[in-house]
């Protein structure tokens, strides 16, 4: 069975809305689109590149798909070549025209469709797609969670862990690494069970 990887950029207070540019997602009057750009550095770039090793499919929400489809087919470089040749699967409640090569709309039962994708691919990456990610969290339908946590606070905006996240155990699977501009890479695997409790006052 293949692995589903969720890759997200987030602020220290958990905001992951529109890291890439001012026009990416202004829902709710969000005024900080592109907040990642001043803090992106070579180390993060190398981490992103290395994290894509073995990727054999992209799984995206509709908004992120539209942003990617408008940019990557016209771009150069290794990531562009990778994204353009990979199969791309899109979760949407509508029936959009998908003009980017090798793009497929998932059926109305998204959860079942994602489970079927795990039987066809080894490493499926969900990049951004914050609204869709909430469904994957609620269904525990992911295997790896990679977060780049940036040293800023925005106070409002769509968050990585919104309402509806179910209690879940995660396991840190590699050492935490900080970039020169302060982005902290944290990579987790989904773990069995639910969080336990105890009594810290006990001797």
UniProtKB/TrEMBL annotation:
Listed under GO biological process in this entry are: riboflavin biosynthetic process
Q: Which domain of life is it from?
A: Bacteria
Against Pfam families, the record matches this protein to:
RibD_C
* GO MF entries: 5-amino-6-(5-phosphoribosylamino)uracil reductase activity
Please state every residue range assigned to the domain named Bacterial bifunctional deaminase-reductase C-terminal: 5-173
Q: What name does this protein carry? A: Dihydrofolate reductase family protein
- Name the source organism: Arthrobacter cavernae
């Amino acid at each position: 069975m293949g692995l589903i990887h969720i890759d997200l950029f987030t602020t220290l207070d958990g905001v992951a809305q529109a890291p890439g540019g001012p026009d990416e997602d202004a829902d709710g009057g969000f005024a900080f689109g592109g907040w990642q750009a001043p803090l992106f550095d070579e180390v993060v770039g190398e981490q992103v590149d290395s994290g894509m090793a073995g990727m054999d499919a992209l799984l995206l929400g509709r908004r992120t798909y539209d942003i990617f489809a408008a940019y990557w087919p016209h771009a150069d470089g290794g990531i562009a070549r990778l994204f353009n040749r990979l199969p791309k699967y899109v979760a949407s409640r509508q029936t959009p025209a998908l003009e980017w090569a090798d793009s497929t709309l998932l059926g109305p039962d998204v959860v079942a469709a994602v489970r079927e994708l795990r039987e066809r691919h080894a490493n499926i990456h969900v990049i951004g797609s914050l609204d869709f990610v909430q469904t994957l969290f609620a269904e525990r339908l992911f295997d790896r969670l990679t977060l780049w946590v940036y040293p800023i606070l925005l106070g409002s905006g769509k968050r990585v862990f919104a309402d509806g996240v179910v209690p879940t155990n995660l396991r840190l699977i590699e050492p935490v690494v900080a970039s020169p501009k302060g982005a902290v890479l944290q990579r987790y695997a989904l773990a069995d069970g639910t969080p336990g409790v105890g009594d810290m006052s006990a001797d």
